[in-house]
Amino acid sequence: MSARLGKLRQKLAEKELDAIFISQPENRYYLSGFDGSAGFLLITAQDAILATDFRYLEQAKEQTPEYRIFPIAGDMANWFPELISGLALAKLGFEAGHITLSLYRKLSDIIGKLESPPKLVPLDGLVESLRAVKEPEEIAAIARAAELADRAFEHIEGILQAGMTEKEAAWEIEKFLRESGSQAVPFDIIVASGPNSALPHAKPSPRSIQPGEPVLLDIGARVSGYSSDLSRTICLGAPDDTFKKVYDIVLGAQLTALELIKEGMTGEEADKLARTVIAEAGYEKAFGHSLGHGVGLAAHESPRLGPGTTEPLTSGMVFTIEPGVYLPGWGGVRIEDLVVMENGRAKIISKSRKV
Ligand code: ZN
């Protein structure tokens, strides 16, 4: 925790901020180790304070030895002035991407009534940018979550048969994951068959899976708070010509990106590698989402690999590479692997077969 706090304090100094008020749950956990479901952090150059209520005081003491625990109760107006009193804050950063408008108004209102009110400074993705670069223990937890997703894919591939519904298959996957040691799944498992697979984020339906059509599976597990994310598209029986053609294009795009992504490239450049392959095959409009996203404490986090992303990919980042082609009425194909940027290249973490 102290290394993470050190990095955060350096960022605060660069931005000439006296403190940051953390309200985003994963950021709170990342910086403190406190996994209770309510509370705020206030970090200054010297202090690290966890403000939480009666329900979590014992847990907070145990989980956050480096923090001073500040008990809170009821309305923020009752405790916020005391929380910051004596800290001599001139500039206080807050998480603009997370805080609600009503909380912001309340905070402004409370601060406005103070004798020497600090200036509220909106911050965007500050802790998220620290979280994007993983430590070895974080990568190890993600790799364990990826292994569970790989095993779940193998399991469902072994038992999937025509007539099984998407919902039944999704539950089989989730049950397998939980019984194999996954925490609650980080996102709803996707099993989408036939035309349903043309929806990139389809919900499993009571539709029976038929032979010869695409079946898109998107599976995530969670280990020690860290997620994995894996997509495969399979076919029961003989695939039709569209499947063979589209699958080859998507696989080609994915392998191209896996091979050519290099450290220092921007998210947009990485995305372009796969997008060009799909565009040259004539399916540019059928690839309507980004190439990938970071994975960690959240299933979707920084970095983003997509058009307009200027953020460079650096060593230690963990992200997905998941091109897809979606044809309304027929279905879709997505192939997604999890990678870690290591020695300048994208090293694959997920191991499920693709051919
Ligand atoms: Zn994904």
What do these coordinates show?
With 355 residues, the protein is an alpha+beta fold. The protein has two domains: 2-131, Creatine Amidinohydrolase, Chain A, domain 1; 136-348, Creatine Amidinohydrolase (Alpha-Beta Complex), CATH 3.90.230. The chain has ten helices and 18 strands. It has helices at residues 2-14, 25-32, 57-63, 76-84, 101-112, 126-131, 136-159, 166-179, 241-260, 267-280; strands at residues 19-22, 40-44, 48-53, 68-72, 91-95, 119-123, 190-193, 214-219, 222-223, 226-227, 230-235, 292-294, 301-305, 318-321, 324-327, 331-334, 337-342, 345-348. It has a six-stranded mixed β-sheet with strand order 4-3-2-1-5-6, with helices on both faces. Strand 15 and strand 16 (331-334) form a beta hairpin. The protein is elongated. The relative contact order is 0.11. The model has no long low-confidence stretch (mean pLDDT 96). Zinc ion (ZN) is lined by residues 229, 293, 320, 322, 336.
